[in-house]
């Protein structure tokens, strides 16, 4: 580098490089300026100066200098390498790879450039290129361990695990007999375990086990050794040996559920669906009884039998498991047992069991059949469990009575208020739920979880300002927005975005949803540093797991919610574009004048954007002249107004839709959104593809039925196509329609009627039929309305249990009310429906039920006491008319 410079300037160039590496950016700039004073067109110095300025957040100048450097010395690998580093810092990985390849054309054996290129190829999953680059590095530097390991990992990622094993064995052949030294034992151990896992992956179980036993003295991680060994023994069918080893592992950790599952496999008592014969249940029961005597303090050995035991044995074991936890007062007991509610009959058994305990404690102060007197708190936790049980079953009146009694019993237990808040949320009184959550928060101001729960309830009640004030109590220096964003607090941003969307504030909603999307981009970016770190530190198994995790990163629920929320915002933007007086005036102008004005506006917008970017850069550079990075940026669009000015909302929606289609193909919502977007874009073949996916996933879903009818109504009303694209669509539909069972030789009205016949008892299916009836034939609006209003609501008793469950769900009834009011445009029918649902859901604020906080004198009205039964005035903060009293301002920040 700097070879074309005289000795003095060449030394200065080396100083620039050293200053860059040691982050002494001002010193590097000074040296660069000294060279450029004599040689103003020296390409490599210009490039290095640009790279240094980039580290000082002066990006515009950096790009100008680096481009000028490449232009002045296009045959310098240094200039191209620096250009690649610049692109890499801005996450422009594809452009960076191009620059590195240009550099390698000039200097094909440059180790540093090859290493940087391999990192980018791993990041972008260019696996064939990754293999090629790592092989070249190994050829150039075969004496470096990292090059051997990197080549093996590249082959593994490229689905060639057997080749990876060969490379690792070749590497082992180069080692000396006394390897590894004491300071490299852990790294060598990890490599051996990685090699065994590769052998297991390719199915060489016998060889893998032999290698494991052979290398046992060199393996430091003895737990990983045993877990790998037992996995191989099971795959080889050596179940007796695996049984003994699993018991050894259980003696080390008797609460590891995977060990119990493995032990069951060894004994032939494992089932994928959790179904067992009566003989298998007897054997399992005997196994766990013997294990419970061996590991008396293990909770797993007592909890697992509840999954397979039935009837009286289940009740007996459940009683033995529940009683000590109720006596101790474990709030998470219901969460622990909630998975049992998916097993037929077990919810009833638990209900009878706990009710029996409740009656016995009330009458005698003891559990049934016990001589030991229970403390008073046992009744409290029994009521607490029953409240959650009835809430899960939808018996909200009983749940509220139980939790109210528990609060009367001991008004100072925070968990009671949190659970009551959750019940009120389920019954539809979000305002009262937020008030109760705030009451719980005020009982322990240092509890972050309770604070977060309160914030979530406030956001569900659309009290965003209040939620922000509450969240700020646990953020650094009261910096709520930046701190929560920096912490990647996605649940908060999603809840905030959904609240803004409900309130119609699309700018802020988009801002929050896109913030979550950015977090996922940051998480994906964060893997970059590990490509070299993991190879250097030999954490190879963890590295492979991390890469697999990154490959399915966008399939996680938070990203799905954020992307779906953003798409819904763009759909709303498209459906209701802003019409201003200025645009009305524009429509009256001649075409040539319109074109001229649009061109002028674009130029103004471009100039404004450039000015803003320069302003931001100058602010950053003013703060970071000393070379400091990561200056906290100023948010120039806190309300998301610029996000609303997008020219093509459907193009933006399509960008996120592609990610959902790639990563969440089995989600019904993905294909519903695909249908909505492509119908608006007039991409009818893609919309039809979405309809087919919906029918494949759930043909009887009301939304799938709506999309099916709407699509064929749209295409059926089209004229005979004259274009090639139209003829292609027509031929595809003619070929595919007979394969759709719902439409075989039927008119759309007939298909709609058959859908109703299959689902007469379901409210939401009736509503879907009624809506499509109106869409197909608007003259039948009164018939559609009458069908909805005549829907029966079956009240279902639960096996003689306390209370009943309504078949109608609150969310469905709200959707039906909106259908009557905004789609069918029947305000009278909507009013009647609201009155009817107010009787069915008396706590619902949407329907203004008589017990909801929407009614002035109701039990849960926010301007009266928060709870009628059991709530104690805390004297700290009360939610009055949706605002906190000024006492809130005096609360100290807890961090």
Give a description of the structure.
The longest helix has 33 residues, at 591-623. A hairpin with a 2-residue loop joins strand 3 and strand 4. The two termini are 51 Å apart. With 895 residues, the protein is an all-alpha fold. It is built from 45 helices and 4 strands. The strands form 2 sheets. Strands 1-2 form a two-stranded antiparallel ribbon. The protein has a two-stranded antiparallel ribbon with strand order 3-4. Among the domains are: 7-182, Tetratricopeptide repeat domain (Serine Threonine Protein Phosphatase 5, Tetratricopeptide repeat); 488-577 and 644-662, Serine Threonine Protein Phosphatase 5, Tetratricopeptide repeat, CATH 1.25.40.
Residue fraction in strands: under 5%
Tell me the helix content.
55-70%
Tally the helices: 45
The number of distinct β-strands equals 4
Rounded to the nearest angstrom, the radius of gyration is: 34 Å
Termini Cα gap: 51 Å
The CATH homologous superfamily name of the domain at 7-182 equals: Tetratricopeptide repeat domain
- In the CATH hierarchy, the architecture of the domain at 7-182 is Alpha Horseshoe
In terms of structural class, how would the helical and strand content be classed?
Answer: mainly alpha
What CATH calls the topology of the domain at 7-182 is Serine Threonine Protein Phosphatase 5, Tetratricopeptide repeat
Principal-axes shape call:
globular
Query: How is the biggest beta sheet arranged?
Result: 2 strands, antiparallel
């Amino acid at each position: 580098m700097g070879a074309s410079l005289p000795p003095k300037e060449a030394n200065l160039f080396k100083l620039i490089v050293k200053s860059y590496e040691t982050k002494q950016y001002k010193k590097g700039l000074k040296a660069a300026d000294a060279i450029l004073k004599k040689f103003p067109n020296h390409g490599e110095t210009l490039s290095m100066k640009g790279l240094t300025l980039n580290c000082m957040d002066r990006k515009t100048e950096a790009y100008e200098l680096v481009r000028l450097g490449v232009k002045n010395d296009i045959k310098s690998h240094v200039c191209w390498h620096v250009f690649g580093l610049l692109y890499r810092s801005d996450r422009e990985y594809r452009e960076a790879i191009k620059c590195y390849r240009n550099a390698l054309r000039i200097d094909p054996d440059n180790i540093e450039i090859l290493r940087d290129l391999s990192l980018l190829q791993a990041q972008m999953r260019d696996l064939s290129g990754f293999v090629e680059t790592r092989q070249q590095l190994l050829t150039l530097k075969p004496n470096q361990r990292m090059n051997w390991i990197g080549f093996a990992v590249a082959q593994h990622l490229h689905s060639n695990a057997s080749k990876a094993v060969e490379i690792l064995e070749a590497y082992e052949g180069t080692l000396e007999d006394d390897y590894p030294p004491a300071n490299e034992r852990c790294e060598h151990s990890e490599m051996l375990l990685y090699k065994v896992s590769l052998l297991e992956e390719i199915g060489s179980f016998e060889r893998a086990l032999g290698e494991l036993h052979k290398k046992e003295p060199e393996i430091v991680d003895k737990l990983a050794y045993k877990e790998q060994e037992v996995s191989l023994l099971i795959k080889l069918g050596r179940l007796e040996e695996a049984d003994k080893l699993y018991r050894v592992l259980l003696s080390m950790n008797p609460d590891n559920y995977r060990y119990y599952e493995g032990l069951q496999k060894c004994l032939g008592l494992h089932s994928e669906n959790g179904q067992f014969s009566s003989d298998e249940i007897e054997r399992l029961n005997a196994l766990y009884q013997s294990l419970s005597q061996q590991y008396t303090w293990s909770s797993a050995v007592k909890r697992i039998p509840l999954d397979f035991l039935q009837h009286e044995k289940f009740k007996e074991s459940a009683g033995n498991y529940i009683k000590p936890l109720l006596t101790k007062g474990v709030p998470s007991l219901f969460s622990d047992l909630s998975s049992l509610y998916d097993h037929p009959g077990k919810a009833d058994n638990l209900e009878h069991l706990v009710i029996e305990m409740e009656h016995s404690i009330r009458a005698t102060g003891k559990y049934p059949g016990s001589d030991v007197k229970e403390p008073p708190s046992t009744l409290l936790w029994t009521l607490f469990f029953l409240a959650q049980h009835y809430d899960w079953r939808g018996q909200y009146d009983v749940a509220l009575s139980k939790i109210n009694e528990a609060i009367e019993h001991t008004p100072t237990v925070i968990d009671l208020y949190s659970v009551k808040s959750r019940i009120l949320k389920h019954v539809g009184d979000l305002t009262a739920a937020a008030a109760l959550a705030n009451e719980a928060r005020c009982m322990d101001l240092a509890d972050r979880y309770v604070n977060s729960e309160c914030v979530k309830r406030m956001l569900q009640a659309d009290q965003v300002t209040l939620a922000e004030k509450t969240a700020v109590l646990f953020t650094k220096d009261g910096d709520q927005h930046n701190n929560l964003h920096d912490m990647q607090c996605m649940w908060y941003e999603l809840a905030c975005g959904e609240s803004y969307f409900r309130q119609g504030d699309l700018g802020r909603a988009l801002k929050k949803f896109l913030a979550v999307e950015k977090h996922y981009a940051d998480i994906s970016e964060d893997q970059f540093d590990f490509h070299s770190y993991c190879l250097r530190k030999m954490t190879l198994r963890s590295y492979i797991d991390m890469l697999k995790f990154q490959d399915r990163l966008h399939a996680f629920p938070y990203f799905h919610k954020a992307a779906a929320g953003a798409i819904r915002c763009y759909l709303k933007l498209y459906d209701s574009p802003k019409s201003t007086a200025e645009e009305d005036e524009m429509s009256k102008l001649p075409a040539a004048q319109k074109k001229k004005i649009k061109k002028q506006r674009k130029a103004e917008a471009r100039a404004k954007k450039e000015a803003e970017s320069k302003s931001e850069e100058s602010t950053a550079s003013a703060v970071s002249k000393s070379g400091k990075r990561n200056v906290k940026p100023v948010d120039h669009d806190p309300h998301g107004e610029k996000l609303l000015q997008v020219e093509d909302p459907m193009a933006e929606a399509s960008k996120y839709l592609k990610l959902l289609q790639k990563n969440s193909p089995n989600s019904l919502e993905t294909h519903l959104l695909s249908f909505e977007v492509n119908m608006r874009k007039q991409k009818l073949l893609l919309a039809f593809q979405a309809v087919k996916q919906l029918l494949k996933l759930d043909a009887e879903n009301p939304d799938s039925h709506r999309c099916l009818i709407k699509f064929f109504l749209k295409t059926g009303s089209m004229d005979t196509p004259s274009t090639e694209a139209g003829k292609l669509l027509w031929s595809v539909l003619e070929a595919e329609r007979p394969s759709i069972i719902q439409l075989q030789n039927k008119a759309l009205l007939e298909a709609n009627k058959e859908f109703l016949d299959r689902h007469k008892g379901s409210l939401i299916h009736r509503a879907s039929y009624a809506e499509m009836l109106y869409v197909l034939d608007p003259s039948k609006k009164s018939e559609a309305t009458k069908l909805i209003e005549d829907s029966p609501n079956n009240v279902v008793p639960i096996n003689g249990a306390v209370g009943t469950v309504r078949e109608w769900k609150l969310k469905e009834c709200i959707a039906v009310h909106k259908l009557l009011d905004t789609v069918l445009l029947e305000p009278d029918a909507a009013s009647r429906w609201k009155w009817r649902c107010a009787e069915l859901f008396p706590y619902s604020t949407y329907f203004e039920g008589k017990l909801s906080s929407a009614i002035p004198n109701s039990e849960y009205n926010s301007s009266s006491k928060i709870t009628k039964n059991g709530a104690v005035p805390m004297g700290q903060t009360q939610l009055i008319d949706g605002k906190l009293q000024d006492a809130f301002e005096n609360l100290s920040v807890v961090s």
